[in-house]
Amino acid sequence: MRKMLTIISNVLRGSASRNGARVVVSARTYADFTPQASFDIKKCDVHKLEEGPPLQAVLTREEGLQYYRTMQTIRRMELKADQLYKQKIIRGFCHLYDGQEACAVGIEAGINLSDHLITAYRAHGYTLTRGGTVREIMAELTGRRGGIAKGKGGSMHMYTKHFYGGNGIVGAQVPLGAGVALACKYLGKNELCVCLYGDGAANQGQIFETYNMASLWKLPCIFICENNKYGMGTSVERAAASTDYYKRGDFIPGLRVDGMDVLCVREATKLAAEHCRSGKGPILMELQTYRYHGHSMSDPGISYRTRDEIQEVRSKSDPISMLKDRMLSNNMASVEELKEIDVEVRKEIEDAAQFATTDPEPPLDDLCNHIFYNDPPMEVRGTNPWTKLKSIS
Amino acid sequence: MASLRCFLRSGKKAVTAVLRREFHGTPPAAVQVTVRDALNQAMDEELERDERVFLLGEEVAQYDGAYKVSRGLWKKYGDKRIIDTPITEMGFAGIAVGAAMAGLRPICEFMTFNFSMQAIDQVINSAAKTYYMSAGLQSVPIVFRGPNGASAGVAAQHSQCFAAWYGHCPGLKVVSPWSAEDARGLLKSAIRDDNPVVFLENELMYGVPFEMSEEVQSKDFLIPIGKAKIERQGTHITLVSHSRMVSLCLDAAAVLAKEGIECEVINMRTIRPLDAEAIETSIMKTNHLVTVEGGWPQFGIGAEILARIMEGPAFNYLDSPAVRVTGVDIPMPYAKILEDNSVPQIKDIIFSIKKTLNV
């Protein structure tokens, strides 16, 4: 069988170079790759938990390729947004997620699409993992009618099914997430809610109010603190009396996770999801991660941290490189294959950017729509008493 | 002889009873219902009608409600649907909004709207604006309810009227019932509405009984949000008011009727969207306007009404400038004599009407 496949692939390869066309052919057949492998992952510190996730994670080739593709898509999408922002095609607030890809991808790998998720304003990655397309995300950033929120929300207000944004007010999304979890429990569908916030938000009072109620009522809520070491320009040591964010839930069990390792994040999320679904109530995860960009596009990100620090993380802990190295060194994919994915991703981003820059802006008569749901059309006062605008649900 | 007299007397009673029924013409099933009971019944019926509806707030369950508005509901519906919260407004208001986003229909009670200030970010930024920001992807069917405005002797931090604050924001519906019928019909509409509704009750009105006709008592009796009601027809001047001040307007109108001044009293029922048309139609008939509210004057309900009238067709019908009767522009004092003089009294309304009519 193997000999036959080798012959076939040789023939194909041969014909490809003769035609001069670029045919997608793996130099090796699928039978050559390792279908799955086991990887050591960092031990998670635990708080009020018997034990953390296993110290080894099994990764299949398929999973690896999918995580790689998704992380690369987020990475390139964010870098493209950076470009467009500098060209002033994106305006206002733009908080980029590059560096933190393992969090979004690892979390999604540990839950189902039928579960729920809510996060703060650094939301482009999650909009993607929760079912949004690069096209509609980018068009939302450029404020066009093809945007995921028709251009009316912008960077911080993107929504998809079972994804509640994109929230601009620091910390406000945490009670909202617990409310979603309450609905999950109330409706009895065995779903849970992942509720994300940053190291800066972790000191918000409403989060502690939420810990209390989620715990009292045993809501199926996974609280996740994405600790990227800086709340805007303030390092964690300068903002928090205790930087053990995974312990800040006090009576809520917690674990501290390597947020740069997609497998570590996945295994921790699986453990957390199991905890919630078994009716034990909420659980808290701290993901130790890093953002390459500043807080937002208005922040160069080097006044409160050194370029060396950023460079060190890039070279030693980049989530995409880590996965790539693992797969290559275990013969789970080829260099060409991964390069091919890179090319496809780049093309997807280019197409999306093209769409996002050429799609027309929303029509002016959409201005007053979507004030109320399921209501008859109504009048909205314009800027002066003679201007009466129309609002449809 | 005595028995004959008895018989005649009872017969006379029977005849009078029949006559009374016919003369009054009230449907036999009309009852007296307090505003509190009207709210309670409305919630009970809506909880029964739709299992996604639930109530949360401080003391709403086992205490039967701080003002007993939710009396009996926990006993009937249990922990799942009537939820006592800790004293954490920002947290539980956010939880309520999140639950609404995920498919439930919460009624979030603030013990008074003064405490809603702690949660106001969730009401405005998480509830009111979301349908717009998501361009129609995410609706928020929630009701925030509780007593609003001045009470009796509760002093400055517990007496603020929030009608103007919430009425300012697009994406919210803001409702302010006066009578038991208002309370019932508007609360049912609010709960069935798929949008965030701020429902401003009044503690001093909770115990006031009103007659409720059979039609109003029916399970599907709804009052449309956004429509005012003319409580009293008149020809000389239009009085526009909401909540408890409607009572004072009617009292002032009764006094002035004896002097030959007929006031038309409009009960706004809804703050936002404001029924400007009802007010304009009335002014075109009476040519004079006085608004009456319990809240502070600056940037308030009356201020908005007057501005709208200025900008609209009714301006040309005004024979004198429209004026506002409002609470005094101070934090609410405690001593009774001071408190009484901090809110409009009937004499203040009468005074303003006479000044406006130049009599």
TrEMBL record, chain A:
Major localisation: mitochondrion
InterPro entries assigned to the protein according to its UniProt record, in alphabetical order: DH_E1, PDH_E1_Alpha_Subunit, Pyrv_DH_E1_asu_subgrp-y, THDP-binding
RNA-binding is among the record's keywords: no
UniProtKB keywords: Carbohydrate metabolism, Glucose metabolism, Magnesium, Metal-binding, Mitochondrion, Oxidoreductase, Phosphoprotein, Pyruvate, Thiamine pyrophosphate, Transit peptide
GO biological process annotation, one example: glucose metabolic process
GO cellular component term, pick one: mitochondrial matrix
Keyword Metal-binding found: yes
Protein name per UniProt: Pyruvate dehydrogenase E1 component subunit alpha
Signal sequence interval, chain numbering: none
Catalytic activity: N(6)-[(R)-lipoyl]-L-lysyl-[protein] + pyruvate + H(+) = N(6)-[(R)-S(8)-acetyldihydrolipoyl]-L-lysyl-[protein] + CO2
EC number(s) given by UniProt: 1.2.4.1
Species this chain originates from: Sinocyclocheilus grahami (Dianchi golden-line fish)
NCBIfam families the record matches: PDH_E1_alph_y
From TrEMBL, chain B:
The UniProt record lists the keyword Ribosomal protein: no
Cofactor: thiamine diphosphate
SMART domains according to UniProt: Transket_pyr
InterPro entries per UniProt: PDHB_mito-type (IPR027110), THDP-binding (IPR029061), Transketo_C/PFOR_II (IPR009014), Transketolase-like_Pyr-bd (IPR005475), Transketolase_C (IPR033248)
Domain of life: Eukaryota
Domain Transketolase-like pyrimidine-binding positions: 33-208
Protein role: The pyruvate dehydrogenase complex catalyzes the overall conversion of pyruvate to acetyl-CoA and CO(2), and thereby links the glycolytic pathway to the tricarboxylic cycle. The pyruvate dehydrogenase complex catalyzes the overall conversion of pyruvate to acetyl-CoA and CO2.
One GO molecular-function entry: pyruvate dehydrogenase (acetyl-transferring) activity
Keyword Chloroplast: no
Quaternary structure annotation from Swiss-Prot or TrEMBL: Heterotetramer of two PDHA1 and two PDHB subunits. The heterotetramer interacts with DLAT, and is part of the multimeric pyruvate dehydrogenase complex that contains multiple copies of pyruvate dehydrogenase (E1), dihydrolipoamide acetyltransferase (DLAT, E2) and lipoamide dehydrogenase (DLD, E3). These subunits are bound to an inner core composed of about 48 DLAT and 12 PDHX molecules. Interacts with DLAT.
Subcellular location: Mitochondrion
First-tier enzyme category under EC: oxidoreductase
Protein keywords: Carbohydrate metabolism, Glucose metabolism, Metal-binding, Mitochondrion, Oxidoreductase, Potassium, Pyruvate, Thiamine pyrophosphate, Transit peptide
EC number: 1.2.4.1
Chief localization: mitochondrion
Protein name according to UniProt: Pyruvate dehydrogenase E1 component subunit beta
One GO BP annotation of this record: glucose metabolic process
GO cellular component terms, semicolon-separated: mitochondrion; pyruvate dehydrogenase complex
The reaction(s) this protein catalyses: N(6)-[(R)-lipoyl]-L-lysyl-[protein] + pyruvate + H(+) = N(6)-[(R)-S(8)-acetyldihydrolipoyl]-L-lysyl-[protein] + CO2
